[in-house]
Write the structure tokens for this entry.
Amino acid sequence: MGTAADVAGAAAPGIAIETLVRLPENKDILSCIQCGTCAATCPYGESMKYPPRRIIAMLRAGLIDQVLASDSLLLCVGCYACMAKCPRGIRLTEVLLPAVKEQVFVHLAETPAELQKALENTLRYGNPMGEPSRKRAAWVKTAGVPIRILAADPRPTDVLWIVECQNSYHPRGQDISRATARLFHALEIDFAILGNEEKCAGECARLLGEAGLFETLMDYNIALFQKYRFNRIVTSGAHAYDAFRHLYPAMGFDRPVDHTTPFLARSLDRLRPRLTRKLNYRVTYHDACCLGRHNGFYEEPRRLLGAIPGVKLVEMVHNRVNSVCCGGGGGGMWLDTYFKSRGVERLSERRVKEALATGADVLAVSCPYEVSRFEDALKVLGGDSRMVVKDVVELLDEAMETGQ
Amino acid sequence: MAIWIVAEQWRGKISPITYELLVLGRELADALGVPLEAVLAGSGVEDPGATLGKADSVLYFDHPLLAEPVPELQAKAIAMLAKIRHPQVIAVPLSNVSLGLGSLLGAELGSPVVNFCKDVRVREGRLEACCVLYGGKIEATVAPQGEPVVLGICPNARGADESHVRPTRRVERFSFPLEPSPVRFQRYVEPEAGDVDLTQQDVLVAVGRGIQQKENLKLAEGLAEVLGGAVCGSRPVVDQGWLPLSRQIGKSGVTVKPKLYIAAGISGAPEHTEGMRNAELIVAINTDSRAPIFDIAHYGIVGDVLDVLPALADEIRARRE
Amino acid sequence: MNITVLLRMVPDVVEELEIAPDGRRLDDEMLRMILSESDDHALEQALLLKECLGGSVTAIAPEASEVNDALYTAVAKGADRAMKLTGLAAGGSTTVLARAFARVLSGGAGVVPADLILTGVQAHDDLDGLLAPLVAHHLGLPHVSIVTRVQVAADRKTAIVAREYPGGVHGEFEVPLPAVLGIQAAEKPPRYVPVAKVRAAMKSARIEELDQAAWEVPPAQIEVLRMDKPEVSSHAEMIEGTPDAMALRVCEILDARGLL
């Protein structure tokens, strides 16, 4: 699958879209029937000047330049809602939108400051927060279980666990990482991490339109993967999962890739006997966009949650394929200021309202952005005394007799 | 043989940093057993010795062209004097007004320039300067060789107050021809008149990047209101346009000494702390436990200002009831 | 309008700085170099002026770790030429660099004579002086530092620049061109450039090298005796707990001082 940058190479910006849609694997794009389901499903559809339907119409009319001159596409959070519902099966979120957004970027008069910083940090430090690489594995010290770092101990490992940026640096992310390590340990999984050598997978940047940044990181990661011997990758990063699973094979990396949630679900028989602590929670599960709509992992997290004694699952009104994005993907994590200035509601707040309406005690998530975004939203909505946000692995860890 | 400090005069007033240099210069002069001389380059100054009496004498270079704040002209004038009087050391202030003067003096005289000095001492008969590098992360101790040595002195290298301001009659006047500089001063542009004089506030709530976005300013405003103070900010916040220039604290802004200074989401870079480090009580809030602000604050909170500011405002309101 | 921008790489303080075993310089094992922040602003200002007035922007930097990235990024942003000074002693001082730049800028070496030379007002390792006034001095050109605004006159012979003073005051100066300006802040924040453009620049642009090895460097007049991490002589008394608990404690402190 080609990215716009592959095609454009050193070609002048602005013609890449037309060339792109004529590639054999993308010929579906022009078969759009203009039904408008994409715009209707888009969580920001009301504010989006150029939903996919209009983009394709403008392409056909030879007016794509107008689309590229608009900044409305910064509202696209890469949530796969349009692509999941498109009756023609057009690869909107995967191919068309990143290609358009790449050109929007080139034409943008001014890049929102927070976004610029995040992208520059990702390129320079391998994480959007701008934290030093030397601190990426600092969380390991307090995990309570041994964690092997390949740079220090390069023996072969079964699982290469890619921890991901948020889960390495953010305090709540670190909670999730420690819980994951304890679960892996309890399941006697042979795993190791890259530690300070690990860098962002750059998939959110790619969805945003920074194909060049994605490629730079991909070059680095593939070279790094070749340094060590491992059988498979398991990653806590939902977006990272997409990159390694769907995009890296084209560059010659083809080992099995899993996300922690389905990975743990597959080991549920071995995990279940360890879940001995009863947690009397009403839990509502938020389907992450990448894991759910894009990869179909709807039942795995629910099976894991259902295996915890005392947990009662309730569903939000929009669940599974209809889940509402937390607003963090596709660059949204760094565009909250921009969204505010455009007067649009934060998607995380919209979603948390739905969660609160279920009466649940716990909002369970499985994508790294979601914890901090939903916790912020809970605070803003004044719901933080009624509900907490926990990653699925945190709940599993809590239910383990040796967990926290 | 003498220690020179360059007195900084701006818009008719001797800048406070001059007195800090005098305190330092006095120490060096006493250690080396040589006189301390204050050098002033200006135009039409009636009583150059009015406040510089901590020095043994004042050397005043008078020339109409020195009415304009052009560092090249000042450097030329002071260099002329240096070539006659051969000082060992020329200390210049590192401030917005005098920036560049040290380098130009060094170039004119073929002298070494030691920049970013936060301390200078005499050890075993030779000068040792402690210089701040990499934004304060490293201190380099250096020994300059040559004469004269030009030292660029950072603000707050020494404390100075009214006791260091006194007159002297020992003023020597000089005037030599000076070529006009091709750089022509036109005018000063004042910042937009703020409704608030920050230097007169007892309480200041200062915000930095940690406030994250403009809407969150209201949290600071809420706290300032219950404390009877005003909101101000560090440079990044002003650069973003979230606060006007008149509310900027620091090197390019205002220096304040309030009773209470709450630094919310401010990292504590020297350019900012220069403007507030002498506040009576400094409470700092930052998510980074290693933020330099905690080195000068009296009390510190590692936390998110978006949580702490409203909690504080609420608690104060509750107490009032 | 031909604008030359002088760029420098400085130690990146995001990665913690360590001191080398000999105690006199930085340990370069984990050291990363980044474009000096005000040089980035100087580049942005140059690009803004080029967009307004046409002409060309030449970026010149001394050899350093990661300097090629900075130069290709400058080209991707819109600089027309990128040049590198090679053969300078490592950890070079600002005074030595100023002479090297002045040599290169005073003609020959294929450097386009500049109408305007921009560089950052200062870098955080300018131990022995500031670049802008020194380059101006060696070239015999006028100079203004701490510049936040540059307005070139219609005849391109002069510019009005705004320079920062304390208290938010600005001074306006008229400077004949060519001149050297020490930029504090560009009129807009440094722009973002998509990585694809930088990658394209890496393929298509060429960094011209100007070798300085033949030039004699005078002995250093400043000896670095040692480097230390600053001793923190005092530290705040830290307050801990939930936001509410911390608020309570702070109120107690304020109350005790009569501030409530």
Observations:
- Chain B touches chain C through 86 residues (CB under 8 Å).
